[in-house]
Amino acid sequence: MKEFNIDAVILFNVEKLVIVGYMEVNGFDINEVYNIMPINNINKVLQHGILCYNKAISLHPESIASFEIQQLRSIKSVPNGHALHEYANLYFDARNPMMFKHRRRNDICVLRISEDVFNLNDVVLSDRNAASDYATYYTVEDINKLDFNLIFARDWTCPGDPIGYYKRKKVKCAEILVKDRVPQNLIVGAYVKNDLIKINLENQGFNREILINEDIFFG
User: What span, in angstroms and rounded, lies between the C-alpha atoms of 193 and 216?
Assistant: First the structure.
């Protein structure tokens, strides 16, 4: 097994690394990951978990993804041969270009997913937006190959360097890809940007911890 820079309680077996508690990867603590979710979908999420595109489509969920990006994702596969649309996608950092695009919306929340998601079978990591032509895919054991200095950077601007800007923008959206679905029990809470949205989320039956965090929504 490759050297893994993790400061956490960990268990090893012959097949995989098991993470208990939190990870410290290259100096960054990772104790939760994120999904940007329309609040209108919360009832479905509480019933079924966070589903991959192919499983969610029959439930007719609301989507904030652009048609063009979904078209790109529909023709991509990860190295194990599965289609990208067979994976539910999570972000390491929800304060990213996707959120910036939707920052003025008052009908979305950020679901907080336990680090236990890394222990699920068939989890794949992408070092940038998985729809990118330049995306590289890794196993959880190779998480330290991701550039967390860029993933957790406060912004992705790169004055005078359009190629650098494009790279930073894509890397900010590095993903955790979970085969089929993220189980409901791994959803530990949510972030919203104000009290009114918190009330709306509670009215949808969301019974986990809800925290107001304007910064994630570029407030």
Answer: 8
